[in-house]
From TrEMBL:
GO cellular component: cytoplasm
Lineage, top ranks: Bacteria, Pseudomonadati, Pseudomonadota, Alphaproteobacteria, Rhodobacterales
Gene3D superfamilies, A to Z: 3.90.1200.10, Phosphorylase Kinase, domain 1 (3.30.200.20)
Swiss-Prot/TrEMBL GO biological process terms: phosphatidylethanolamine biosynthetic process
Entry protein name: Choline kinase
Length: 292
């Protein structure tokens, strides 16, 4: 059965159903569907062990995120299928985060997610430690004889330096994939969607990912850290943050390298790898500038 047929045959429809493919998904096939009483988004995707995506975890995080006031409701779920409420709004782009008001709204939402979601989680939940993810990706790329194998020793040496610099962490429930397209603004408030990689993590990973994926400048990063931690960032916080920001960019790079080999979705993964590798190089250089 094709993804479209799966959507059309869901047992939730009342009356005729109209289905349209959504663009942008790079771990799922996504559709917007509307019947006589509701409009929803249908996400079609199985577990992806190569990327540590387990759908039971995405489901429990999505349910808890709605209860915490962060995400739309889960309408229906079945193996390989997640149906969530449709938000009438605009998907954000990196350019939107140049507006300080948008950045502040995203941070308020992120803080609500970090601290509120654990109050509603049920059952087992995953952790997301980026440096273990990087080690696993490197092993996958070596086993597949990726065209990037020759670059891995230097990149993993960098990762070891970054992990040591991060040191001990606070633990929150992270989204761990803060691409601009995962934020939606309905004209009044902001929503955070797509909990594929959700899990307990350092808040610095989400903050670093938010900055790296949305090209925040240094002044914005300083305001972001002060707003999140309720104090101006000192030298130690800057160093830990910049280490995690570089790690977040490196994870996105290796994710794309692995996807070049194994993903069947139509997407320019090679171009995405090159873009994120450049982002990582810049982030690592900024981290190195904190070493004294």
């Amino acid at each position: 059965m094709t993804p479209l047929e799966k959507v059309q045959n869901l047992p939730i429809w009342q009356g005729s159903v109209r289905v349209e493919r959504l663009g942008g998904g790079i771990t799922n096939v996504n559709f917007v569907a509307e019947d006589d009483i509701q409009k929803v988004v249908v996400r079609i995707g199985d577990d992806i062990p190569l990327h540590q995506i387990l759908r039971f975890n995405e489901l429990s995080a999505s349910i808890a995120a709605y209860a915490a006031g962060v995400s739309p409701p889960v309408i229906y779920h079945a193996p390989g299928v997640l149906v969530i409420g449709f938000i009438e709004g605009r998907t954000l782009t990196a350019a939107d985060f140049a507006d300080d008001a948008v950045l502040e709204q995203s941070l308020d939402l992120l803080m609500l997610a970090h601290r509120g979601i654990p109050q509603h989680l049920r059952g087992a939940s995953l952790a997301f430690w980026v440096f273990q993810v990087l080690r696993d990706y490197a092993a996958t790329l070596r086993a597949a004889r990726s065209r990037y194998v020759s670059a891995l020793p230097a990149l993993m040496a960098d990762a070891a330096v970054l992990e040591a610099a991060v040191g001990q962490i606070d633990l929150v429930f992270g989204h761990n994939d803060l691409l601009p397209a995962n934020f939606i603004h309905d004209g009044t408030r902001m929503w955070l969607i797509d909990w594929d990689y959700a899990g307990f993590n350092s808040p610095l990973f989400d903050l670093g990912g938010l900055a790296a994926n949305n090209s925040l400048n240094t002044a914005q990063e300083a305001r972001m850290l002060e707003r999140y931690f309720s104090r101006p960032p000192d030298a130690d916080l800057w160093r830990k943050y910049k280490a995690m920001k570089a790690a977040a960019a490196l994870r996105e790079t290796l994710w794309s390298m692995v996807s070049e080999i194994y993903s069947a979705l139509e997407f320019d993964y090679a171009g995405y790898t090159a873009k994120n590798l450049a982002t990582y190089r810049a982030a690592y250089a900024a981290f190195e500038n904190t070493r004294g």
